[in-house]
Amino acid sequence: MSRENPDTVVEVRDLSVQRNGIDVLEDITFSVRHGQFIGLVGPNGAGKTTLLKALLGLIPVTRGSIRVLGAPPGDRAYDAHGIGYVPQRQEIGRNFPATVADIVMMGRFCCMGPLSFPRKKDWLHVKRTLALVGLEHLAERSIGQLSGGELRRVTLAQALCASTRLLVLDEPTIGLDLPAEHEFYALLAKLKADLGLTIIAVSHDLVALGGRADELICINRRMHIHGNPEDVVHSHAIREAYSCEFSFLAGELAHHEGVRPHDGPAHSHDEDTPGRDDGHGDK
Ligand SMILES: Nc1ncnc2c1ncn2[C@@H]1O[C@H](COP(=O)(O)OP(=O)(O)OP(=O)(O)O)[C@@H](O)[C@H]1O
Ligand SMILES: [Mg+2]
User: Fold this and answer.
1) Are residues 49 and 112 in the same domain?
2) SS3 labels along 79-127
3) What is the mean pLDDT for each group of 10 consecutive residues in the chain (283 residues)?
4) Which residue, by CA, sits nearest to atom 29 of ligand 1?
5) 74-93 exposure pattern, b = at least 16 Cβ within 10 A, e = fewer
6) Are 214 and 30 in contact (CB under 8 A)?
């Protein structure tokens, strides 16, 4: 468990979650080590957002256990450290009367006591965080006057204000064009290196994520496969999860910059089947 291994940031064991009485996640087990970038993939409705919300303690667990930064979700000990969360649907209205700094400060509320107001040190923290994402010059800009890419960096800064240890990002690049997406992932890589961040990111774009993540986890209600991106993309398990062929992805991934050399087998979640496509039902 996490307390026994300080290198483990997230530990999920036999996790099941129900929504409206229906099993949305079943028997999910994995762990994330300090400083890893984990890509979480799976088809629409697979339970990716549900898994992130369970990690954050926003929805209850039906069975199994979760430990994040050494404590169960909702425990004050880790709330105080915080998890940075960029949700899938960002509800910041373009007409919301707030500046960039105001929005980023909202990420700091979890670290302030109840009924506290932001103090000078909190505004300094916001300023430093905006500098980390390259938006210091836009601190006083109205939130409605930003480009889509800038807005993504604001929500990233808001998440960083809550935690510089663990970031959980749900479809953070959706709606961005390719250069903006590239820039966003480059920023994440820099933050990971500079701050020693641990990152869990959900994306539909297997190639973009596979080219950048240290490991991919593929779920579709159950765990299908967890391993290095190359193995995962080549696996039979991922085709099963998406119920379609993905052979073209292997070639795409090979050409993608940042793909690491093969550094170990993926963990397929069938009892005895490795991650490579050997045709033996690695589910
Ligand atoms: N609040 C809720 N009440 C009931 N069912 C829900 C609720 N939220 C999600 N679900 C159901 O749980 C399942 C998983 O949803 P979830 O949003 O976690 O999937 P996802 O993998 O994030 O999908 P997408 O890629 O479309 O974002 C879906 O069948 C969804 O309808
Ligand atoms: Mg989702």
Assistant:
1) no
2) HHHCCEEECCCCCCCCCCCCEHHHHHHHCCHHHCCCCCCCCHHHHHHHH
3) 70 96 96 96 94 93 93 66 80 79 87 73 93 95 89 93 90 89 93 94 89 95 95 90 65 51 49 33 33
4) 45
5) eeeebbebbbbbbbeebebe
6) no
CATH value at residue 58? 3.40.50.300
275 in Cβ contact with 231 (< 8 Å)? yes
Predicted model pTM = 0.85
∠ CA 139-157-39, rounded to 5°: 155
CA-to-CA dists, residue 43 to 64, 106, 173, 196, 244, angstroms? 23, 31, 17, 30, 11
The radius of gyration of the chain's CA atoms, rounded to the nearest angstrom, is: 19
Whether residues 79 and 176 share a domain: the answer is yes
Among protein residues, the one whose CA lies closest to atom 5 of ligand 1: 19
Q: Which domain holds residue 101?
A: 90-162
Q: Are residues 280 and 226 in the same domain?
A: yes
Determine the distance separating the centroid of ligand 1 and the alpha carbon of 48, expressed in angstroms.
Answer: 8
Could you give the 3-state DSSP secondary structure of residue 224? strand
My answer on whether 148 and 174 are in the same domain is no
Residues at CB less than 6 angstroms from ligand 1: 19-20, 24, 42, 44-50, 88
Claim to verify: residue 96 and residue 75 sit in the same structural domain? no
